[in-house]
Write a structure and sequence with these properties.
This protein is α+β, with helices and mostly antiparallel strands. It has helices spanning about 5, 10-20, 40-55, 80-90, 110-120, 140-150; strands spanning about 65, 95, 165, 170. The protein contains 6 helices and 4 strands; from the N terminus they run H-H-H-E-H-E-H-H-E-E.
Length: about 180
């Protein structure tokens, strides 16, 4: 969840409904404005994470999940800066990345086929989709049905290679994802 969205009571109620239904809620920065690795001000990176964490409150998953803003789904050192890593470690948060981006925001009517190909190309997929007013989610049930028809399953866990930091401890070298 974006912290800025949680500040809206109607959106917070929607997040609370999702939480009550068993969905995991995590932190996706306050503003989704600039990848944290591109911020020069350490205090800005800290605020992006900590203000959202405060707004999440009891909706947050026990592992205090965090997914950085990637900027069109790209992975690289622009994702985090050292201040962001310090916050994640100090607060024993779990930083989760992704391994599939079908660019649903770019192709609201055609993302399903791309997503299916991305899922078929690997043993376990963490797919990023966006609930934006583009009409892309009108195709979500089609995607889910096709995954199941092809023998795929859905689970609330993460491929190990997508977990960068688990409960404050790095699980993989951080250098490829942190601005020097």
């Amino acid at each position: 969840m974006l912290g800025a969205k949680l500040a809206d009571p109607a959106r917070r109620r929607l997040a609370a409904q999702a939480h009550a239904a068993g969905h995991w809620i995590g932190n996706h920065t306050m503003s989704h404005g600039t990848p944290l690795g591109r911020l020069k001000d350490a205090s800005a990176a800290r605020r992006e994470i900590l203000e959202t964490e405060k707004l999440l409150g009891d909706l947050a998953h026990a592992d205090r999940l965090f997914r950085p803003f990637g900027g069109e789904g790209k992975l690289g050192p622009h994702l985090l800066n050292s201040a962001a890593v310090d916050v994640l470690r100090e607060n024993r948060m779990t930083c989760v990345l992704w391994n599939a981006i079908p660019r649903d925001w770019d192709d609201p009517g055609g993302w399903v086929e791309k997503a299916l190909r991305q899922c078929q190309a690997q043993p376990s997929t963490l797919l990023v989709l966006h609930d934006l007013p583009t009409g892309a989610m009108d195709h979500l049930q089609t995607f889910i049905g096709q995954v199941r028809e092809q023998g795929g399953e859905f689970s609330q866990d993460f491929p190990p290679e997508c977990v960068l930091i688990r409960r404050g401890e790095a699980t993989t070298p951080l250098a490829p994802y942190v601005t020097a």
